[in-house]
Each structure stands twice: as structure tokens, then as C-alpha cells.
Design brief:
The complex is a heterodimer of chains A (422) and B (232). Chain A is built from 14 helices and 14 strands. Chain A is α+β, with helices and mostly antiparallel strands and 422 residues long. Chain A has a six-stranded mixed beta barrel. By secondary structure, chain B is α/β, with parallel strands linked by helices. Chain B has a six-stranded mixed sheet with strand order 6-7-8-3-9-10, with helices on both faces. In chain B, strands 2-1-4-5 form a four-stranded antiparallel sheet, with helices on one face. The chains are: A alpha+beta (422), B alpha/beta (232). At the A-B interface, helix 1 and helix 11 of A face helix 2 and helix 4 of B.
């Protein structure tokens, strides 16, 4: 059995070498196809990662620890206890999780009315820790005027530039924030504008105010409770792992759960999935073209070798052996081409385009989608699992595309094949 | 009375009828024949007389429409494809008009092919092929691909491939048709010698007079049947 398989493999190799030009041309199509697949998929992965990170920075992070009833109303009575928040932060500092975490920010999110002498508008007030928030939301680098919050601040506010314009606020101007306190009473908080930011997202720029966390906690009377602990990871792929670890760390506390970004920002998740779907269609078409090239080459090889396959049958090869021979040829060709294609794709993607593909010349202002700013530079990301999938797909397609020619090979009638003038 | 003598191949009222586009052709009509081990037999007859079809029936390349065929006393008429492949591998050698060597293999690899399929160890395969090549005068050609061999040399390799497995039967369809008279004569000498030395049974389909002259028995076919004046 083994001898026969080795013999068939040997014959398949020699057949491919005999039709070197045809084999190389087909392999070239596959190499280009796979290289393109690697390139577009790496770029897509990188773009998605950037997109997700941009989205979760201005939302609840890759992982959010919160009261299980907090979503979707985000009411203050469904807040997270200070103890649970501290437990989450302690767990995130453990050696097994710390390397995965870029930063973790406790936040108190309040829906409020912001009033100035020129008017009042509904806003979302975030009580933030000035020490960690800049690294999280990166709104510090979006500073338009003034300064960001510091640890020494108590009654300062960092407001969206659109909101400042709507309320005609200047640096140092007073702003009254009104919301419902923890005891259901109406609570006011006076703050002064320390700085303004422009995130690029209208809903943030027109309606977000950052104030110090301690000020926000005191304002609504929640002690050291927060709305959530937002966790920003180095990569979104670690989300599930961190969610599981936090769930374990939070233990029996039924008032605290760790939720992935797909749950806290479902619109972003949907947008990524829709974009993924578009990519899958493109990749499917690409792989279909590769498959047709393989079918064509292998089928031509079978038809041109009708007499030869007849001889092999006459010499004692079984029908299934001829099918195996043809399958070996298709699989060998695609495996070799697949591996070369993957290497070429990697070389092009991470050699030539490692700093990204810059589309900024096509952008006019900020482009946003699903609550995230789309970066004009798409930086490719290497994902071993996707790379292995790409090669596996090519090999699977090679085998599948060889099935029909293999079946045709089994249908050859020996006596008829002998008459064939190949 | 049942004949219990062992035969290399025999048929009993065997028919082969082809149908193409509604046209029926009776290529072999009720042939009953027996060929004993060690015979050197020619199936002779004009083109279209059914020589090749009968040869293909002997080799299991065609299935009889009616009647039965035995090879080495095994009824092959209704064997499965798998068993027919095994039979061809182990009991039958083929020599074709157009040589039909595998172009991707060397002369030695072509000749040892059936031994390889049968799982014969490499040392044994090569020993047997080399001995045979030496016997038929192509010992120095073992590393050449078919494209580097003359027609006569290719046909010798093809004969070596057919006999190296010591089959019960070697079936040769017009083996000299593409050869000049010198190459043809040399090939026939070689096959005659193999028949005499090894006792290999040869059955030819041919209208080559030189080959017919060497045959110890000629079975004449006319319109798919054995000629009336002939007693096989």
C-alpha cells in the first residue's frame, strides 16, 4: 500500500516536472492569488484592529467590567461597586493578564444636562481618572485649546469642541452639569472649562464632558462606585481570554460581569462583521479563480494523458490509483504554490507595506463608521491563524479542484485510451 | 467431457458487441478457443476481423457481451474492476503497437513498473530487470528515457516490461507494426527466445507475415469469428 502511494507520488512529481511550463504558469496564478489573499487579509486584519481599537477607546474598551443590568439603560442605580472595580483592577495587574492590558480606566458615566448662560444641552459626562484616561481615549492628543485634566484638578472639565461652540464656552468659563443623584435627587455640579478636544466624532465632540472621577462620584453621591472599568488591550484577539480571566477573578459577585466589546459596542461589531463579509466575498471570488485555474490545468493534463493513464491501468493500476495520482498532482501543485504564495504575500505585505497603505489623499476630513474614526493609513497585521487558514484553503481548493479531473481519470476505458493520439 | 488440462487462456462462445449511436457491431462472434501454457500463437486476419478485440478480451480490457473467458484457469468474465486490475498486474503482460512506455520513466523504471506495483523489493526488481535487459541486448540503455530510444529499443523495453513479472500470458497487439524489418526481426528473435527459454506464453494479434511465419499456431479470424476451415 505504502509502496504504491510512494510510486504514485513519484509519478505525480515527474508528471508535474514534465509539464514544467504549464505547471509553473498554473503555480504562478496560485502564487499571485495567495499572495493577494495574504496581502488583502493582512491589510483587512490590520484595518479592523485599528478600527476596533479606535472604536473601543471612545466607548467601553475591549472589555468592560460592569453591573450586569447596566446595559442598555446605563442608569446610575445599576452601577459597579468600588470593591468590584478594585477586584477587576487587581486581577488585571496580575502577571498573566498585565502583558495583555494596555490600560484600564475606571469611569463613572452620567447622563446630564450641561448649562451655560447661553443655553443647555444634554451631554454624557464621564468621571475619569486623569492619570490613566489620556492613554485610554487619547483625547489628550486631540486637544484643541487649553489643557487636559490633571490629577490635581477637581472642578475642571475637558469638553468637546462642538459642545463648547454650542454653549459659547471659552476656557475658564463656568458650566453647570445637572443629573439625577444616587438618591434620585437632582444634583448640580459647577465646573470650569479647562480645555476642549476634537475627536472627529460629532456625537463625542458635541456631547461629551470629562471631569475628574472623584468629583463625579461626590456629585452624585456614589462613594467610590463607578459605572464600569473599561479595559483597553494591546490586541482585540485577547478579548475572550481577558473576559474569562476577569469572570474567574470576579467570582461569586453577581453584581459584576466582564463583557467583551462585541456586547458593549454591538454597532462596531456589526460593522466589522459586515466588512468581513465583503472581504469574504472578495476572497471567495479570488479562490474561485484559482480553483478554475487548477481545474483547467489538471483536467488538461488528464485529457492529454488519456493514453498514458490507459497504459497505467493496463499495467495493473486500479481506477482509484489513477484518481489518487491526479489528486496528488493537484495537491502537490497547490501545496507548493500555496507555500510560495504565502511567503511572497508575507514578503510584499510586511516588507514593502509594513508601514501601511496610506489613503489619506482620498480623505477629506475625518471619516467615521460605527462610532470609530477610520484611520487613513491601513497597517497590515500578521495573524498566524489566518496565514495557516490561507494556505489550508489553497490546499483544500487544490484537492477539491482536482476531484473532477480525478474522476475523469477513473472513467478512462483502457482499450479506448489505447486508440487515443495524445 | 470436461477438459482438466491447464490452459493459459481459453474462451467459450465469447461475443463482444459494441453499440455506437444506435449502430451495433459484432466485433467478436462466438469464439471458442484455448491456448496452452508456453504457446506462441498468432491471431491473424484482415483489419476489422476482431483480432485486437479478442486480444483485449483475453487481457480483461474488454468484458465479453456473452460467453466466458478464463485466464490461467480463472474465469475473468465477471471479475470486478479491482480484481481485473490485480489479474493484469500479476498474470498478464501487454505489448502494444505504439510501444506505450511511460515517458517520465527511464527504460529500467518502465520495465520494473509492474514489479514495483506488486511490492517487489528494489534490489530484486533491479536484478531481474537488468538480467532481462542483458538477455535482450539493451543493458546499456537502462537510464534512458523513451524519447532517447529508437522504436526497436522502446519495443524491447516494452517486451521486458511485459515479461519481467513472469506472467501466465503476454498479449502483443501488432508489436512489429511500427518497426523496420531489421528491428522487427530482432524483436521477434528476442520474443522467440523468451518463449523458448522462459516458457512464456505469447499471443499476438498481427498480420505481419514474418511474425506469422514464426508462430507455432495461427488462429485465423474472419468477421469476428474463427475462420470455418480452421480448427484452433
Amino acid at each position: 500500500m505504502m509502496t504504491r502511494l510512494v510510486l504514485l507520488m513519484h509519478l505525480a512529481l515527474r508528471n508535474l516536472r514534465r509539464q514544467a511550463r504549464r505547471s509553473v504558469l498554473t503555480a504562478l496564478a496560485m502564487v499571485l492569488g495567495l499572495a493577494l489573499l495574504v496581502f488583502t487579509r493582512s491589510l483587512g486584519d490590520g484595518a479592523h484592529e485599528t478600527w476596533i481599537k479606535a472604536g473601543v477607546r471612545l466607548a467601553s474598551g475591549h472589555v468592560a467590567v460592569m453591573n450586569p443590568d447596566y446595559l442598555p439603560r446605563r442608569a446610575i442605580e445599576n452601577r459597579l461597586s468600588g470593591a468590584a472595580a478594585q477586584a477587576a483592577l487587581t486581577a488585571l495587574a496580575r502577571p498573566e493578564l498585565a502583558p495583555l492590558v494596555e490600560t484600564a480606566a475606571p469611569r463613572l458615566e452620567l447622563h446630564a444636562l450641561a448649562s451655560s448662560p447661553r443655553g443647555a444641552v444634554p451631554v454624557v459626562v464621564y468621571g475619569v481618572d486623569p492619570a490613566v484616561e489620556p492613554a485610554f481615549s487619547q483625547l489628550d492628543i486631540r486637544l484643541v485649546e487649553g489643557r487636559t485634566l490633571t490629577a490635581a484638578d477637581r472642578l475642571q472639565a475637558y469638553v468637546g469642541v462642538g459642545l463648547a461652540q454650542r454653549l459659547h464656552l471659552q476656557l475658564g468659563d463656568r458650566l453647570v452639569l445637572t443629573t439625577q443623584g444616587a438618591d434620585s435627587s437632582i444634583a448640580d455640579q459647577l465646573v470650569r472649562v479647562a480645555g476642549t478636544f476634537r475627536s472627529g466624532l460629532p456625537e463625542v465632540d458635541d456631547g461629551v464632558v470629562h471631569i475628574p472621577l472623584a468629583t463625579a462620584q461626590a456629585w452624585v453621591g456614589v462613594g467610590n462606585d463607578v459605572s464600569s472599568v473599561a479595559v483597553l488591550l494591546h490586541g482585540s484577539r485577547e478579548t475572550e481570554r481577558v473576559v474569562r480571566a476577569l469572570a474567574t477573578a470576579l467570582g461569586d459577585d453577581h453584581r459584576a460581569v466582564a463583557l467583551p466589546w462585541q456586547t458593549t459596542t454591538p454597532e462596531l461589531d456589526s460593522a466589522v462583521k459586515i466588512d468581513d463579509y465583503g472581504n469574504y466575498v472578495f476572497h471567495f471570488v479570488l479562490l474561485l479563480i484559482v480553483a478554475l485555474a487548477i481545474v483547467n490545468t489538471i483536467l488538461m493534463a488528464v485529457l492529454a494523458r488519456t493514453r498514458e493513464l490507459g497504459i497505467l491501468r493496463a499495467l495493473g493500476l486500479r481506477r482509484r490509483d489513477t484518481a489518487t495520482l491526479v489528486l496528488f498532482e493537484g495537491t502537490l501543485l497547490t501545496t507548493v504554490a500555496g507555500l510560495i504564495g504565502a511567503l511572497v504575500g508575507l514578503a510584499v505585505t510586511f516588507g514593502i507595506f509594513r508601514h501601511g497603505l496610506d489613503f489619506s489623499s482620498f480623505y477629506s476630513g475625518e471619516m467615521t463608521a460605527a462610532g470609530a474614526i477610520i484611520e487613513p493609513v491601513m497597517i497590515p497585521e500578521f495573524r498566524l491563524d489566518h496565514m495557516l487558514q490561507n494556505v489550508a484553503w489553497i490546499v483544500i481548493i487544490g484537492v477539491v479542484a482536482s476531484l473532477y479531473p480525478a474522476w475523469r481519470a477513473t472513467r478512462i476505458e483502457i482499450a479506448e485510451a489505447m486508440k487515443f493520439e495524445g | 467431457m470436461t477438459d482438466t488440462t491447464r490452459t493459459a487462456v481459453r474462451t467459450e462462445d465469447v461475443w463482444k458487441i459494441f453499440e455506437h449511436d444506435g449502430v451495433t457491431v459484432e466485433a467478436v462472434r462466438g469464439v471458442t478457443v484455448r491456448i496452452d501454457p508456453g504457446e506462441f500463437v498468432v491471431l491473424a486476419g484482415p483489419s476489422g476481423s476482431g483480432k485486437t478485440t479478442l486480444l483485449n478480451l483475453f487481457g480483461g480490457l474488454h468484458r465479453p457481451t456473452r460467453g466466458r473467458v478464463w485466464v490461467d484457469e480463472r474465469d475473468i468474465s465477471n471479475l470486478s474492476e479491482h480484481d481485473l486490475s490485480r489479474l493484469r498486474l500479476e498474470r498478464i503482460g501487454f505489448v502494444f503497437q505504439a510501444y506505450n512506455l511511460l515517458p517520465i520513466l527511464t527504460a529500467l523504471e518502465n520495465a520494473e513498473f509492474s514489479l514495483l506495483l506488486r511490492g517487489v523489493p528494489a534490489d530484486e526488481r533491479q536484478r531481474r530487470v537488468r538480467a532481462l535487459f542483458a538477455k535482450i541486448g539493451i543493458g546499456e540503455l537502462e537510464d534512458r528515457r523513451p524519447s532517447k530510444l529508437s522504436g526497436g529499443q522502446q519495443q524491447r523495453v516494452a517486451v521486458a516490461r511485459a515479461v519481467v513479472g513472469e506472467p501466465a500470458l503476454v498479449l502483443a497487439d501488432e508489436p512489429t507494426a511500427n518497426l523496420d524489418s531489421v528491428a522487427s526481426g530482432a524483436l521477434l528473435d528476442m520474443m522467440t527466445r523468451l518463449n523458448e527459454d522462459l516458457g512464456t506464453t505469447f499471443v499476438f494479434a498481427t498480420h505481419d507475415p514474418d511474425l506469422m511465419a514464426r508462430a507455432r499456431r495461427i488462429i485465423r479470424l474472419v468477421d469476428g469469428a474463427i475462420a470455418p476451415d480452421h480448427r484452433p
